[in-house]
């Protein structure tokens, strides 16, 4: 294996490790804006302004990334969103 091939392999591994997971929140016809905002503040540590903006994006675009980070950090946050009746997943 040449030196050039070895360096390329190292770069590919580093890029894969740097990728973060995301919680994507989806629109529904059930939950109120207030409920979504309060849940984002509680589950994702959003400010009121962040939560309000995300709820507007979800309403008009159908989905919004509401939190990024490691899977271990996002899993309990996503569970809180789901327990509150929101539609979300980690991608």
From TrEMBL:
The keyword Hydrolase applies. One of its GO terms (molecular function) is peptidase activity. It comes from Patiriisocius hiemis. Residues 16-83 form the Adaptor protein ClpS core domain. Keywords: Hydrolase, Protease. Gene3D superfamilies: 3.30.1390.10. One of its GO terms (biological process) is proteolysis. This is ATP-dependent Clp protease adaptor ClpS. SUPFAM superfamilies: ClpS-like. InterPro entries: ClpS_core, Ribosomal_bL12_C/ClpS-like.
